[in-house]
Design brief:
Elements lengths: L1 E4 L2 E4 L7 E8 L2 E6 L7 E7 L3 E9 L5 H14 L5 E3 L2 E2 L5 E13 L5 E12 L19 H5 L8
Antiparallel strand pairs: 1-2, 1-7, 3-6, 4-5, 6-10, 7-8, 9-10
């Protein structure tokens, strides 16, 4: 199975740069329970909840600069720009996906500080529409997010 997000492509294989595993997804209804006197509660269905997707990506220094890849995914998350997530031959969800979480585990570091391997846990949410805060201010996405401008310069491999 092959997938992609933005400019990154991954494939389930022991001989590829990105091997993803532990794929999971979920979706639920958004609803409200309403009390009724002397009877079971009524259920008010508000609509569909968000569709979420997560998977792990194993990085190996034999095929990729592990530190650079970790930085790429963190910066991608910090920019908060929704992009199409494709798994197999189909785009996941009804539109774009927002990368919401990047976690690093199983990090193997050499004596000289280079990263030999790591596992990235990536989480996405279907991006249906931009929201607003309680004052009506629109959501901030894209290059305007200050954290994205940091670019993790201290980790970047030159």
């Amino acid at each position: 199975m092959i997938g992609s997000f933005g400019t990154k492509t991954f494939e389930v294989s022991d001989k590829k740069i990105y091997t993803f595993s532990d794929v999971s997804f979920s979706e639920s209804l958004s609803f409200e329970t309403q009390e009724r006197s002397g009877d079971k509660p009524a259920i008010y269905v508000k609509g569909l909840g968000e569709l979420t997707q997560s998977f792990n990506v194993r990085l190996d220094a034999r095929w990729v600069d592990v530190k650079q890849e970790i930085v790429w995914w963190i910066v991608k998350m910090r920019t908060a720009v929704p992009e199409f997530l494709t798994i197999g031959e189909h785009t996941w969800g009804t539109g774009k996906a927002l990368l919401t979480s990047v976690s690093v585990s199983d990090l193997v570091e050499a004596g000289d500080g280079t990263y030999l391997a790591a596992t990235l846990a990536l989480s996405f949410v279907e991006y249906a529409a931009a929201g607003a805060d309680e004052d009506g201010n629109p959501a901030v996405t894209g290059p305007g997010i200050k954290a994205a401008q940091i670019q993790l310069a201290e980790l970047m491999v030159k």
